[in-house]
Amino acid sequence: MIIEGVGRLVLTVVEAKLTRSTEYWGKMDPQVEINYPDAKRTKTWRSKVSTDTHLTPVWNESVAVDVKRLAGYLVLKMWDSDYFGDEFIG
Ligand SMILES: [Ca+2]
What we know:
Immunoglobulin-like; four-stranded antiparallel β-sheet; mainly beta; three-stranded antiparallel β-sheet; single chain
C-alpha cells in the first residue's frame, strides 16, 4: 500500500502466491476485488484477470481512493474468473 499526495490513498495490487486451486482442471484465472466505503455507499474496484499464471498471479494495477470520503474498512477479495460465474477464492 502506498500513500501518495494529500487526501489520496493509492492501493497497488502486485502479485499473490496461492496455496490451493479451485479448478478441477486447467489453470486459475485470479482477479482481485477491493470494496471501500465512499461517502454513503460502498464502491467496488476489480483488477484485470491474471491469465496463464495459475497459482502465482501478477496484476501490477492501482486504484486511487479519496481518503476524505473513506470512513470504514477496505475489504479485499479474490475471485477465480469462470465462464459460468466467478468462484470465490478468499
Ligand atoms: Ca477459472
